[in-house]
Design brief:
Helix content is about 30%, strand content about 25%. By secondary structure, the protein is an alpha/beta fold. It folds into two domains: about 1-120, no CATH class; about 125-415, Aldolase class I (TIM Barrel, Alpha-Beta Barrel), CATH 3.20.20. The strands form two sheets. Strands 1, 2, 3, 4, 5, 6, 7, 8, 9, 10, 11, 12 and 13 form a 13-stranded antiparallel beta sheet that branches. Strand 15 (about 230-235), helix 5 (about 245-260) and strand 16 (about 265-270) form a beta-alpha-beta unit. The chain is globular and about 70 Å long.
Length: about 425
């Protein structure tokens, strides 16, 4: 498997003599055959600015830096879990990579391969199922039907400009649709994709919503989408802050919707730090809850999320309460090779999952500049297993917990909805 690199114009090449290597955290490592999958359809190859690639001389085993070239990574579709980072060194230590999740890529058998694992069925999140011409027509028709709804107008931008598939589902009237509700947040996540301080060095790839919706607007969006047993409407999107800060309008809106229809599922993607607010939302009829988390170790969690007036313990209590009330709970686990697979991280997270009754682990690649992230979190204390082995350990230790990438609907609850339809 050979090194892939780019020239100054962005043209991509495979090196005829150097083998590819990758990084697990900050450690250079050889790539195993079992860690490779063919470059998935929908992936994008990108050059990493201000970097130079590193390969391995197959005769001597020596690591070789390729001067005057740029390292290449792959941005893989949702549902593919990255196992290793590209092998590179930075030419400018102050430079920060844009907020994407870069996977190692190699050239083998006349094709590109990436270090990845298919963690879920990607059919519903395949961009080919979101034809842009049809989406434009559906957006225009929906906005004509709801001309005063600012949420749908906001989502039209997300769907057409950012090509957000969750937002697009609102206009296709299917699967999991977005319901952004909050322009404020009780955390200052280091890798937030919708709001960064001016001096952070990270340009935000999305624009956060800048208005407070009305209860009527929420109800309108929910009733527009919840029309089939499999439909899901989700608070908590990448273009907003923490949805539970708006519990004062979420709770009455949910109650009004459930007085009208039992169809579909109501989900919240949340940091779960506002336990009292989460309890109110749960009691109003919440079906699904996905808790965003990066670690079950306080020091690591707080370094990344930078929570305001809540702690990791609040997160655990929120998840426990939701599970006790029959809500199907999951974690949105932000994964980073060389950190996710640390012994102490795994032990703490397994204990957290057992305590809180989590039913589903949604593996999500952390979009971050690797050097910045590794510099801000605790150093590894024990063994680092590698992503593939770490996931296998989770499967062994938590046999009743589903490991995937997307929101799942419990089969018994889905059948109940179908019976009511």
């Amino acid at each position: 498997m050979y090194l892939v690199y780019a020239d100054e114009k962005g043209n991509v090449y495979d090196h005829p003599g150097l083998f590819a290597v990758a990084r697990n955290g900050d450690i250079l490592t050889e790539i195993l055959e079992e860690e490779l999958i063919p470059l998935p359809e929908g992936s994008t190859l990108v050059s990493l600015p201000d970097t130079e690639p590193i390969g391995m001389d197959p005769d001597t085993g020596e690591m070789v830096k390729l001067d005057g070239c740029t390292a290449v990574g792959a941005l893989v579709p949702q549902g593919i879990t990255r196992l290793l980072l590209p092998g590179y060194v930075k030419t400018n230590k102050e430079s920060k990579l844009p907020l994407f999740g870069y996977s190692a890529v190699v050239w083998k058998d006349n094709r590109f391969w990436v270090t990845g694992r298919e963690s879920d069925d990607i059919y519903k999140w395949d961009p080919l199922n979101f034809p842009m011409d049809e989406l434009r027509q559906r957006v225009a028709k929906t906005l004509e039907t709801f001309p005063q709804n600012r949420i749908l107008n906001h989502l039209s931008h997300c769907a057409l400009e950012y090509e957000c598939l969750t937002a697009s589902n609102n206009f296709f009237n299917r699967w999991e649709g977005s319901l952004p509700v909050s322009y404020t947040c009780n955390a200052g996540c280091y890798g937030c994709i919708s709001e960064q301080p001016d001096d952070s060095g990270f340009p935000s790839p999305q624009t956060r919503m800048n208005f407070k919706p009305t209860e009527d607007e929420l109800v309108e969006v929910m009733l527009h989408h919840l029309k089939t047993p499999e439909s899901i409407i989700s608070f908590g999107q990448g273009c907003e802050g923490e949805p539970s800060t708006m519990a004062s309008i979420i709770v009455p809106a949910m109650r009004r919707v459930r007085e009208t229809t039992d169809m579909g599922f109501i989900n919240i993607n949340t940091n779960a730090g506002l336990t009292d607010h989460i309890k109110g939302i749960v009691d109003a009829g919440l079906d699904l809850m996905r808790v965003s988390i990066i670690s079950a170790i306080d020091e690591h969690y707080h370094a990344y999320y930078r929570p305001r007036n809540y702690t990791l313990e609040n997160v655990a209590r929120s998840a426990e309460y939701a599970a006790s009330k029959g809500v199907y709970t999951s974690i949105n686990y932000l994964c980073f090779p060389g950190v996710f697979d640390r012994e102490e991280e795994m032990e703490a997270m397994i204990e957290f999952i057992r305590r809180t009754g989590i039913k589903l682990i949604q593996l999500r690649n952390l979009n971050i500049d690797p050097e910045s992230y590794l510099a801000m979190i605790p150093k590894a204390q024990g063994e680092v297993f590698g992503m593939k082995q770490a996931i296998e350990i989770y499967q062994q230790e938590l046999p009743d917990v589903v490991i995937g990438s997307f929101t799942h609907i419990p089969p018994d609850q889905l059948q109940r909805r179908k019976n009511m339809a």
